[in-house]
Batch of 2 targets.
Target 1
Amino acid sequence: MSLPLPVSLSPSKVSSFTDCALAFRFSAIDHLPEAPSVPATRGSLVHAALERLFCLDAAERTFERSLVCLADAVEVFRSEADFIDLGLDDAAEATFLDEARVLLEKYFRLEDPTSITPIGIELKLEIEVGGVKLRGIIDRLELDADGELVVTDYKTGRAPGERQEQQRLAGVAFYSLLCERLFGRRPAKVQLLYLADPLAIISTPTDRSTRGVERKLAAVWTAVERACEREDFRPNPSRLCDWCAFKAYCPSFGGEVALADAYRIDRELARQADASALV
Ligand code: SF4
């Protein structure tokens, strides 16, 4: 028996596989549920506020309006599971919202949004390379003063150390590849805006970086195929385990992988039952 292949790769799946193959399996193949976390939900909220900000005319993109955008996004989030399941009491919710406001305030230290010419916000892109579906969401695609494409990705966690920075820049090359294949143009610049620091990491995609990401994607996909065939996804304990949602299934923490198998099979049986009910 072998495990089913994941349907696609994305920058986060590639880095998940590189960090810990077993965590990748739990997320991308078994689709185990992941409880929402405060940092991830806060990050989504700030992304939603910035998305609203960039739907406004340039002159209206002020800090004051960004707070209105944040308030609008909060109203939507209040009815979503990722927010409700955090179970924040009044004091914790006030801190959560205050931290989101601080991230927006720091965003304004990184750039002046009135000077940006966006041509796409939260763009869901998909291409196929060598039989592998690649999917990515570009937070913001814009034109610079020379009419060149610029990709911007907001990050609400801290900026990475040197080793992780290389991984993040591999994600950058992934976005550049998506643009090249879909729009026939390589972006002049891809920038990661780390709001918490605040810090911008800017990269200029090249032939070399594009070839590098294609090679890396091919190598990761081959490794995923082999691991699925052999049912061999190994844990790689590291400090990332502190944030891992799958400890209950991970043998390095006394968990059982068999529980993940059972979850995946139950889910597939339920899906098939739903499909036959529709026929
Ligand atoms: S707890 Fe650590 S080793 Fe286990 S799956 Fe998660 S990241 Fe991997």
Note: Strands lie at 117-129, 132-143, 149-155, 189-194, 199-203.
Target 2
Amino acid sequence: MVDRTLSRPELLRRLATTRSELSRTSLLRRLRTIEAVSGAHVWIDGRRLLNFASNDYLGLAQHPALREALVVAAERWGVGATAAHLLGGHREEHALLEEALARWTGRERALLFSDGWMANLGVVSALLDRDDVCVQDKLNHASLLDAARLAGCDLKRYPHADCEAAARQLDARPDAATLLASDGVFSMDGDVAPLRELASLCADRRATLMIDDAHGLGVLGHEGAGSVAEAGLAQADVPILMATLGKAIGVAGAFVAGSAALIDGLVQAARTFVYSTAMPPALAAAARAAVDVARFEGWRRDRLAQLIVHFRAGARTGGLALADSRTPIQPVIVGESAAALAVSARLEDAGFYVPAVRPPTVPEGKARLRVTLSALHAESDVERLLAALKTALA
Ligand SMILES: Cc1ncc(COP(=O)(O)O)c(C=O)c1O
């Protein structure tokens, strides 16, 4: 018998209330289904749209070499890894991919995780306890910020890219074991962190530096080795390097790279590594094929660089406000969420897929169109987008 005098809140009803509040404030997220994909185009609601929202910066997700590696490995290994890495799930494909990633990033070893969230959570909670400090940029990806919250450590945030404020946060507790964690390329703004300054802050104050290079790997640096390589920083400067395999690499998954001591330690202590099924071996094979393409098909990065220059030059000529970004992430800040949604809808009517990104993903009043460029785009695609943006923003 239900006791009708109980005042316990009903969880699903609360969720529904939150949802209607989000709807009222133009913050409701909408799940769209992509019906087909071909090159830079996607099909949504039966319409063919030019996609400017993908993180497939080098255009590898549909590359024949990756498809073939995936199919061949699936024939050999089947589909699932069937177990966690430590309990029989760690196949030769995983070991070979880890070696390839360590070589590429100039690190001693690498360790695979099922995705970037799990990698960040695994590292931060393996390293930090309640008495420790985690200093982070305010615009870091949610997975890094939440990892520190879940680790239960003292999370100290500093204003975006402000190294003096970061130094003050480090100095606030000089005796505490401290990790400073930053995105390499900021996912919603496209700018690159002040990596050399952060490395020297950490070296001077004996803090450990961790860089999440989800959006830098494949895109920046010699052979696409990432923002950390581009900044000339070695393993000693950035002892913990994390990156994902679902963006420029075009597959899925993530890895952490660093010293043998770091990796051996994570194998014991990173709970998201220990207690999670290994990624399907065929995905590891596809990711290894992607590493070769990303490293050695340099024309993809050259093409991307040309597109970025083209977009920025066209935007300037057209009087469009640009963010301070030299990467494929070129946000167009609109301001209010309702306005960003309206611009996105007008772009969709004109044949472009550029979803609006709103709070809490970005700060209040900074809703935007997160335009991303890919080596799959042609210069004429960029020109058409710029023309459509000008009309949609008018
Ligand atoms: C900077 C950054 N870190 C981590 C992640 C999480 O990676 P994944 O999508 O593999 O969980 C993302 C992905 O959106 C990201 O942008």
Note: The CA atoms of residues 223 and 295 lie 5 Å apart.
